[in-house]
Amino acid sequence: MSEFVSFHDLKGASVFITGGGAGIGAALTEGFIEQGAKVAFVQRSDATGFVNEMQQKHGVAPLFIQCDISDVAALQAALEQAASAHGDISVLVNNAANDARHSLQEYTPQDWDNAMAVNLRPHFFSAQAVAPGMKALGGGSIINLSSISYMMGNAGYPGYVASKAAITGLTRGLARELGPDGIRVNTLLPGWVLTQKQLDMWATPDGLAAHLERQCLKEHLVPQDIVDATLFLASRASRMMTSQAMVVDGGVVVTG
């Protein structure tokens, strides 16, 4: 349970999370379960072990639907399955992404298309799928996870950086499109969150020290920092926030 926040309006809410069985996504799934929400998530890899862990820990299991989100038809079928199980989706969290490092010269058109099929395209088509149900509910919240990587102008993965910048633009367009139906759309931009994947693959002592030097707050981010911010954007506590880009990064970049 979060040390800091409890949002009573999330109890019983139908929540759908992409990539909700590992890393930040797993923390998000657990965070919503702890608020009493009914959570469904998709993950390309098998997340049965995580589901069992949640059942043992909280007495309730999230609905896991194995799905490759680059397959739009499969993603939208998973959204329909979740709505059938839990009721119309009122909170959509587009979390899944692939931040694989790549060079400019070696990247192919197929690589580009594959990256966008994971990092950007699902955000649009999942919103398309949930919008009618949210309208019927009288509103809802769509939260698109981007990254401060594009605001920093990071090198080493230009396709990923481009997709994360595009998410902010998509959010603004969707917020205008869906606002008349009471549907809020916001972007959450995490800084460098030290998941196990980051620690295993890219976090070096020098890299960690250099990044911490750029932060105003001299403490590395952990998944729970993103969970608490996401819960706020999901809740009616943020009812008049839409079309916004909210940064949680310890003070590396600024907005406004």
Detail the topology: elements first, then pairings.
Elements: E1 14-18, H1 23-34, E2 38-43, H2 48-58, E3 63-66, H3 72-86, E4 91-94, H4 109-119, H5 121-137, E5 140-145, H6 149-152, H7 158-178, E6 183-190, H8 196-201, H9 205-214, H10 223-234, E7 245-248
Parallel strand pairs: 1-2, 1-4, 2-3, 4-5, 5-6, 6-7
Provide an overview of this structure:
Keywords: Oxidoreductase. The chain has one domain (8-248): Rossmann fold. With 256 residues, it is an alpha/beta fold. It has ten helices and seven strands. Strands 3-2-1-4-5-6-7 form a seven-stranded parallel β-sheet, sandwiched between helices. 46% of the residues lie in helices and 14% in strands. The relative contact order is 0.15. The model has no long low-confidence stretch (mean pLDDT 94). Helix 1 crosses helix 10.
Short structural description:
The chain has ten helices and seven strands.
